[in-house]
Amino acid sequence: MTKPVPPLAPKRPHRIEQLGRARVDDYAWMKDENWQQVLRDPKTLRADVRTHLDAENAYTKAMLAETEGLQAQMFAEMKGRIKEDDSSVPAPDGPWDYYVRYDLGAQHPIHARRPRGKAAGEQVLLDEEALSKGKPFFQVGAASHSPDHALYAWAADEQGSEYYTVRVKDLATGQELGTPIESAYGDFTFSPDSQWIFWIWRDENARPSKVFRRPAGGGEDVLVYEELDEGMFLGVGTASDDSHVLIHVGNQETTEIWLIPAADPTAAPVVTEPRVVGVKYSLDHWTDRWVVRTNADGAVDFKLAVSDAAVPAKAAWRDWIAHQPGRYITGFAAFAGHLVRAERVNALDRLVVTGRDGTEHEVGFGEEAYALNLEGGYEYQTTTARFVYQSPTTPRQTYDYDLATRERTLRKTQEIPSGHDPARYVARRLYAKAHDGEEVPVTVLMLKDTPLDGSAPLLLYGYGSYGHAMEPSFSIRNLSLVDRGWIWATAHIRGGSDKGWGWFLDGRKEKKPNSFTDFIACAEHLIGQGYGARGRVAAYGGSAGGMLMGAVANLRPELWGAIIAAVPFVDVLNTMSDTTLPLTPPEWPEWGNPLEDPAAYDLIAGYSPYDQVSAQAYPPVLATGGLSDPRVTYWEPAKWVAKLREFSAGEAPILLKINMEAGHGGASGRFDFLKEIALDYAFAVWALEKGWEKA
Fold this sequence. Notes:
The protein is α+β, with helices and mostly antiparallel strands. Strand 7 and strand 8 (151-157) form a beta hairpin. Helix 3 packs across helix 13 (672-690).
């Protein structure tokens, strides 16, 4: 059989001069100049780019042809762990219980309701499966009933570009009301009186820049708020006690919130506390006072304040729950008689309940590594809060918790139709020593009888950006590797908030290299403890975690037996220098601004995976992307793969798989998405079994 030949990307040198510095990008041609149009209509992709991407996909398919059986087997295993006719625990709201459910074989759910406390009388609100028929991509963002239960609205993306269309339906007649809202963000909210819908417009550069209001039953759109700073994101919501509509403005380091009283939804919004760079806050109205979560005044891991003012400016905040270094207050939920705050200490979650009288108690669990999340509900006048508990060995358990009596009621345990015995597995929490002495948590999942002599294949997963914590949750997917004797490890590196907000701050901007060296330290610690062996570790990460993959491939290629980079953010310097891209200005607080700051330019140039590719022996690489992805554009992995092939020594294959019908999240169906994961995992098995010489 003829060995597949990788596509040879032509080099078309493009010189870029910036801040007195110059660089040459040989593969800049892969970026379609009309990329905004491609997001909305992929058929408009330039012919030479499409030809190249099709060739890359064909090469990857040919190279991985021998894994197709394994892919199919892994997909069947993952699908077999999903209860196909599953349904959520109903969420009560007034006279109704609201829930989503799946029919057998369905890729998308049905949104429905039935009379509260009843098992019969279902009314279908939205049938995603029916709407998705004949569409290669279909994804619903926000979906919600109006507070008076008369209307239902949903935002749908049919391209993967994250341009949503919002529709509103009359639940009595089933008829859509008014014209659809086009070019919307996937976020909207009804006013508490159900008369208005507030929605966010996405501009020609795919940025959320304006908030509009229109009558819920259809009518003219009225501009409510316009954000002139391209570096800010927008969100809309309502206070828990339905007293206000809230407009959220912010980025990774700065927040501003505007209020509209529910008593007058057409009133102009009023700012609470004007934005100050570096100060974040969120707030909610708790019957007679505001509760504010903030990092102001040096509260790195956040504190809670209260205010009795109608408009709670910072001058009116009074400290309530004081800042404690290392105790990261991640959020809170307000109920009429109680407030529940979520905290994270040393990569473990807990909930703390505070009564109106000031008494407190904690909700926690005793496993070595677990995730505990408060679920949102519709009702304010209730003593019932809902939370989900899970661990790497324990499937999701949904509890209703009585905030007054402290009674836990298990409402649902995630069912694994093909079977799951937690006793077969062991989850451990290890700590790796970083270069500066910091202890980096690592969560490990493996079969109890897996030997720790370096013989087991090891997969190390990481992310480490934007303050996102990698929670030690249960995964139906990871078991397809673990059950084959693999060890799955998650590195809780800096750049995430696993050990607090300071953990995030120590992995951003000028401290970004800590994320990369932390990940390498985790790999070396696991190897030293017998969890893996040098050259037999598969490193896995997506999006900003894909940047991590590119960085560690450049820094320590000999450690890895495979690199899986899903929708990888690898062309950091070029992307952060392109102000037309959707996320560039909003992400300067995370990475720095290389257009104006020479130090930021030099820092990014020093680690940007695409710019740092060099002549050395790289391990096997699988990079994936989506043609309609507005977050990490398709040309980032395409350019990176071309440059890796140009410079890499040895025979290790460099593969690219671009989904020509999806965006950042990959395939939209719950089963189709698993096929993409099965491809990633089969590549890891294939690469480590082949054991390519890297030089």
